[in-house]
Design brief:
- It is a single chain.
- The protein is of the alpha/beta class.
- The protein has 2 domains: 3-233, P-loop containing nucleotide triphosphate hydrolases (Rossmann fold); 237-340, 2-Layer Sandwich (Hypothetical Protein Yjia, Chain: A,domain 2).
- It has 11 helices and 15 strands.
- The chain has helices spanning 16-25, 46-53, 76-87, 103-112, 128-131, 140-148, 162-173, 208-215, 232-235, 273-282, 331-340; strands at residues 3-10, 33-38, 58-63, 91-95, 117-119, 123-126, 151-154, 181-184, 224-225, 248-251, 260-265, 286-294, 299-305, 308-313, 320-326.
- The strands form 2 sheets. Strands 1, 2, 3, 4, 5, 6, 7, 8 and 9 form a 9-stranded mixed sheet that branches. It has a 6-stranded antiparallel sheet with strand order 10-11-15-12-13-14, covered by helices on one side.
- Helix 1 (16-25) runs parallel beside helix 2 (46-53).
- The longest helix has 12 residues, at 76-87.
- It is globular, with a radius of gyration of 20 Å.
- The relative contact order is 0.12.
Length: 345
Amino acid sequence: MTIPVNLVTGFLGVGKTTAVIDLLKNKAGGSRWAVLVNEYGDVSIDGAMIEGSGPDGVSVREVGGGCVCCATAPYLPVALHFLLLDAKPDRLIIETTGLGHPARLLDMLRMNYADRLEVRATLGIVDPSDFAKPEMRENPIFVDQIQLSDVIVMNKLDTATPELVSDFQKWANGLFPPKLLIAGTTHGHLDPAWLDLIANDERLPLFPEAHAHVHEHEPVTLGLASGGRQSPDALAKNQGTDVPRPPKRYPSPPGVKPACCGWIFDAHNVFDENRLLALLGTTKGVSRLKGVFHLPDEWETVNRSGTAVSVAPTAYRRDSRLEVFSDSLDWDGFERELLECLIRR
């Protein structure tokens, strides 16, 4: 049986440690949880706070001196090994440093611990004072943390003006791909149920503005989950097999113009970059497409409008997905070509 693992991420001072302590206080009685804390400095503070405040059944271990996503990565497997061996937890929480790019950490967990750990929702915490600074929204670390998060929580909501909350909600609703939950809270309170939110793909279109009449998609309001049904990590058991798991396909209903079709792949599926970009960039009859893909060494977003194509790296890690608008494509034939872009292991 695999152990659920969640990342709690966010910039410096957003309240990650307070949030982790709150989660621990609300865990089910008798359950065993483990917490891995990444301290950027050599002096442990967050770990001591969690250990001193946590209830029975909580084990804490620190990885200090840098970010587990880069500088101290060699020490992470050692810390994880002994934490899992000693604590035998029912759940693992990893609190990342506020200066970290945690996407590589998720890659490592999926690649090296698929038989022991099941990656669940990543929670990203935002401070209103950070969000109020336009330059913060362009900060590469902040951008990575937001892209990576499945759940975005504005903490310290009592310090935010109604206008800032409204601005945050509009911004969060426009993120691509859509989040599982956009929420607001105070004092770091997180609902433990958020840790296990999973994607209901039919309510998470790639282009909400184009699909509102098709999917009945409504903007997510603070504190309201958009629903859930399918866990990509729970379903992705094909790593190392010869035939990748087929995607879930979502065609638009008859009569919708322009016609469109979407595909969602397990996070473990990996695409050949050259084949994929050749297909997406040269297929005739496409008016628009947008996707995010797991490539051998990176995850990337691909946008095409007419014949113009742009590609950019992303920290998103939940799944690979694509939606294409065309009134002339043979969807079955295009899907076969798309599947040919998958790397068979």
